[in-house]
Amino acid sequence: MGRVDLHVHTNYSDGLMDPFAVVQEALNKNISAIGITDHDTMDGLSTAKQAGKMYGIEVVPGIEFSADYDGKEVHILGYYCNRELNELKQTLQDLKRSRLERITRMIQKLKGLNLDISLADVQQITKGEILGRPHLALALCRKGYCKTTAEAFSKYIGSNAPAYVKRFKITTGEAVRLILKSGGIPVLAHPGLYNADEIISDLISIGLMGIEVFHPDHRLVDILRYKKMAREYNLLVTGGSDFHGTGIGSSPFLGYVTVDSQYLEEIKKYRRI
Fold first, then answer.
1. Which domain holds residue 96?
2. For residue range 59-107, what is the model confidence (pLDDT) as tens digits?
3. Which partner for 67 in 27, 61, 175, 193 could form a disulfide, CB atoms 3.0-4.6 Å apart?
């Protein structure tokens, strides 16, 4: 039995490290398995799995959908989805296109503020084709317009900042149903961040199978509450560091939060691929 980190991002979405380096880091941290859960893409999984075979680290295929729940952004994790499902492929293509369109519009707004930044500046930061505000924030820092990504968000691209553009999202219901249709296991990510536990019962009614109990932003009181809810609703329990790379997010390092591999074994009982 070992420790596993089931919530990890790479530079195929908004992480800083490529999948190969992430797997190497898991080896260094003595983590036996990691879940690659990039935002709205599964493109980094092939490289991660190759590295996993090389280093003896189990790579759990996953994805994290940024979805809408009555105007609130809610994240839905999906484990063991069939990437070949046409509907999943099409949805991911649509999300990729919408992210590109959003970043393009935000760059236009930044240029209107006399900031010399281009799409190429942003694309240099990510390995994949999923563009997000963290990439734009890093590009602004590299160009010398901000000292930190937090400053970039507060001054330029945060929700109330002058270059902000709202992003298209699928609904939480669509995310859960798509994960189920692709043979995957839908899990509500970091519920403690939403301050709306009614989300859980609503999503259970349409097929939610798990809840991320252990997360860097969860306090002990959150962990105890969600463990209790998982027992009451017979939900799978997951957890992980939500690692993006040093300096991004609330997790300072891979494996900052882990769970016992017994939780992964429970998840595997429901996999269909």
1. 91-157
2. 999 999 999 999 999 999 999 999 999 999 999 999 999 999 999 999 9
3. 175
- The token pair at 80 is 């063991």
pLDDT per residue over 110-166, tens digit each?
Answer: 999 999 999 999 998 887 778 889 899 999 999 999 999 899 999 999 999 999 999
- Tell me if 84 is assigned to some domain: no
- Which are the contacts of 195, defined by CB distance < 8 A and separation ≥ 6? none
* pTM for the model: 0.93
**Residue 151 burial by CB count (10 A; 0-12/13-18/19+): exposed, middle or buried?**
middle
For 222, half-sphere exposure in the C-beta direction (CA atoms, 13 angstrom radius) is 19
In a domain, 120, yes or no: yes
- As to burial, measured by CB atoms within 10 angstroms (0-12 exposed, 13-18 middle, 19+ buried), residue 34 is buried
Q: d(Cα 74, Cα 172) in Å, to the nearest integer?
A: 7
* CATH number reported for the structural domain that contains residue 105 in this entry: 1.10.150.650
The token duo for 71 is 């105007």
**How many Cβ atoms from other residues are within 10 Å of residue 256's Cβ?**
17
Is there a domain that residue 86 lies in? no
Helical packing angle, 86-112 and 172-181, nearest 10°:
140
